[in-house]
Write a structure and sequence with these properties.
The complex is a heterodimer of chains A (247) and B (215). Chain A is 37% helix and 27% strand. Chain A is an alpha/beta fold and 247 residues long. Chain A starts with a strand and ends in a 6-residue tail after the last helix. Chain B has a single domain (2-214), classed as MetI-like (MetI-like fold), CATH 1.10.3720.10. The chains are: A alpha/beta (247), B mainly alpha (215). Chain A binds chain B through residues 52-54, 78-79, 81-82, 84-86, 88, 90, 92-97, 105-106, 108-110, 137-140, 153, 157, and chain B through 112, 114-115, 117-125, 128, 132-133, 136-137, 139-140, 210-215.
Chain lengths: 247, 215
């Protein structure tokens, strides 16, 4: 499904170079809920920005069903983007549009008919349990509800992959649980592959079948969640799991 | 007297409305261009943005009275006259367009960059981002900018009165200042205050009414 090969990202600025990702390799299979966990500044957000094509990698490739995303431009880039849905920590909803219009927005962009877009939006509203909020505006919703709308919007174009950047980091623990349950539901019901970037170990433990631990721009450990967390090999994984690590 | 003030009010409103309209016809695309070519914009182009920004700053630096005089040959070319309400509109439009461009640019700067990135991820084209994200999300702020522009242009149109453009400013200068009829001057000022208040109230209501962020 997604194959990341020798991916590197270096940011250049006046003070010099910052290496955000160093020779990252990863294989995400169809149907996975793949967690990428690490501390702040480890490079996980950069990785997601590369995956969602908001950043161009410095070197290496990201293959989505065999197509290298990093080389696409113009209309081919746009159609590749429609195969992925992105969910952000800060929701990023359109504040001047209703919930229904927000969810229909990706369909409006791709030029599909209004009636079809509204029908699809209502279907998704039901899926995320917000049918009664169709005419509300984002400012009238709670954080958890906003994230549900954002998830519904990301699913509008029936993408094969859902990329989530810290989807629950702004939410309380109870709301986090319900949003994660929703993501899990989507994964099983719609067979959508999900990639979750997070710094919370609980998120990975509760829904991810695979995990990769990122530390200082590199993957230090990866594999089945159970395996990795039961027998952590690196200090970073142990640290994230809450072990006392003596250096 | 009543007739004089009525005509003056009509002239002032005419100049304000016409020049505000055309100032936006020119200034809105200029503001969009400034915003999208600026740092982090969707068509970032620093050299163009700097040059264009400088041009706008130069136009904005002109004192309005001087600009009117500099523009005389141009206004004569366009309207056939160098004085009068239509002639004044030309100077008002040229003076206000760069001002509008900066106001529009600052309205766009209020939009959360994350929303634009989200649209990019959905496969939005650059035009779709401008028309379906930037312009629609900025509507309340653009309306507030419109009220600032309109009221500023009322003030400028009064200055244009000094060179025979007509309107309430013209009356205040001719009757109030030159003929010492202070009651006429007071009346024109009062009328201008009323016009400004009404415009402010209407635009405030509109901006709050269309803004869905604070419900």
């Amino acid at each position: 499904m997604i194959q990341i090969q020798h991916l590197s990202k270096v940011f250049q600025d006046k003070s010099g170079e910052t290496v955000a990702l160093k020779d990252v390799n990863l294989h995400i299979q169809k149907g996975d809920i793949f967690g990428i966990i690490g501390m702040s500044g480890a490079g996980k957000s950069t990785l997601l920005r590369c995956l969602s094509t908001l950043e161009k990698p410095t070197s290496g490739s990201i293959l989505l069903d065999g197509t290298d995303l990093s080389t696409l431009t113009g209309s081919r880039l746009i159609s590749a983007r429609r195969k992925m849905g992105v969910v952000f920590q800060g929701y990023n909803l359109l504040m001047q549009r209703t919930v229904r219009q927000n969810i229909a927005f990706p369909l409006t962009l791709s030029g599909s008919g209004k009636a079809g877009a509204v029908r699809r939006a209502d279907e998704l509203l039901e899926l995320v349990g917000l049918s009664n909020k169709a005419e509300s505006y984002p400012s009238q919703l709670s954080g958890g509800q906003k994230q549900r709308v954002a998830i519904a919007r990301a699913l509008a174009t029936s993408p094969e992959v859902l990329l989530c950047d810290e989807p629950t980091s702004a939410l309380d623990s109870l709301t986090t649980k319900s949003v994660l349950e929703l993501l899990h539901d989507i994964n099983t019901k719609l067979n959508v592959t999900i990639v979750i970037i997070t710094h919370e170990i609980a998120v990975v433990k509760s829904i991810c079948n695979k995990v990769a631990v990122i530390d200082s721009a590199e993957f230090v450990e990866w594999g089945d969640t159970k395996e990795v967390f039961e027998h952590p090999k690196t200090d970073m994984t142990k640290l994230l799991l809450g072990y006392e690590v003596l250096k | 007297m009543t007739q004089l003030l009525t005509q003056g009010t009509i002239d002032t409103l005419y100049m304000t409305i016409v020049s505000t309209f055309f100032a936006y016809v020119l200034g809105l695309p200029m503001g969009v261009l400034l915003s999208v070519t600026g740092k982090g914009g969707i068509m970032e182009n620093q050299p163009f943005n700097s040059v264009f920004g400088w041009l706008i700053n130069i136009l904005r630096s002109f004192p309005f009275v001087i600009l009117m005089i500099v523009l005389i040959p141009f206004t004569r070319l366009v309207t056939g006259k160098m004085i009068g309400t239509n002639a004044a509109c030309i100077s008002l439009i040229i003076a206000a367009a760069p001002f509008v461009a900066r106001l529009v640019e600052s309205s766009f700067a209020e939009i959360d960059i994350g929303v634009i990135e989200a649209a990019k991820c959905m496969g939005a084209t650059k035009w779709q981002i401008i028309f379906h994200v930037m312009l629609t999300e900025a509507v309340p702020s653009l309306i507030r900018g419109l009220s600032i522009t309109t009221i500023t242009l009322i003030g400028y149109s009064a200055m244009a009165g000094a060179v025979g453009a007509g309107g309430l400013g013209d009356i205040a200068i001719r009757y109030g200042l030159h003929r010492y009829q202070y009651n006429v001057m007071m009346l024109t000022v009062l009328l201008l205050v009323i016009i400004v208040c009404i415009i402010q109230i209407i635009f405030d209501y509109l901006a709050n009414h269309v803004d869905k962020r604070n419900r």
